[in-house]
Amino acid sequence: MAAKTIVVGNFKGGVGKTKVSVMTSWEYANVHKKKVLLVDMDPQGNASTLIARSAGIEEINKTIFDGFKEGNLQDVVVKVTEHLDLIPAAVSFKNFSKFLYQTFQNDLEQITLLKTLLEPLKANYDYIFIDVPPTISDYSDNAMMASDYVLIILQAQELSLEGAETYVSYLQFMADEYEADIQVLGVLPVLLRAGGRVDQSTVERATELFGEDNVFKNVIKHLERLKAWDMTGIKNEDHHDRKAHQTFLDVVDEIEEKLARFEEESVHV
After folding, report:
1. What is the largest CA-CA distance in the chain?
2. Contact indicator for 134, 164 with CB cutoff of 8 Å
3. Domains and CATH numbers, the chain
4. Residue 56 has what DSSP assignment?
5. 170 in Cβ contact with 12 (< 8 Å)
6. pTM score > 0.85 for this model?
7. What is the mean pLDDT of each run of 10 residues along the chain (269 residues)?
8. Which one-letter DSSP state was computed for residue 31?
9. In what residue span(s) does the AAA domain sit (predicted)?
10. Please, is 250 exposed, middle or buried when counting C-beta atoms within 10 Å of its C-beta (0-12, 13-18, 19+)?
11. Residue 173: which region, alpha, beta or left (left: phi > 0; alpha: psi -120 to 50)?
């Protein structure tokens, strides 16, 4: 059974995409014991940094860009825990577009490189999560073409809602132009302030826009502990840690429900 591949996206920066990518991968692997590969497609490498810090990995010798240049991603996979692997990124990855244009003649080859190189790895995993920059770019194009589903992150503010709308429109463009075969898994709200009026109205507008079934019932509330983990790595030492983990475990449960629904619908088609 090939891995279900999920890109976590929004065309607005700072909405929590990387944290969601990392934490859903972490909970699937370390609690649900699923085989997970986290692919860092962002030259800033924030997902790689957080994962490495959490697992005590002090040195990363090869990154995703090395894998692209060598035509083999298997050699750049870093083992994080028993069930979690990482394909890390670094700042050198900023030259990705230049590399694509110099190496491949047509745009379909350029935007399907990740899909092509992930294919041999998919049998090794239950899930592959892809973290991308918040831009319309070769990074997001490659991630979309390689994925079965997109999990859209919605921070409770107007610009994030617009970013989510743009993301869905761009998905449609990719489907029309390049036959991208990707489904919207759902829209996951990330709240700025629990109980905040603006947050609530943004979630309500998202529900009107995307449909009630498409907006996650579980939300990521503003948790100070998540900020602390940026410095300490992911911990599970006290009730604040456990509360933060439970938030993402609930999201993982809802992802499972949505995936099961998609599979059931595809069987009946």
Report:
1. 54
2. no
3. 4-268 (3.40.50.300)
4. T
5. no
6. yes
7. 90 81 97 98 95 95 97 97 97 96 95 98 98 93 96 80 87 94 92 68 85 90 84 94 95 96 75
8. T
9. 4-183
10. middle
11. alpha
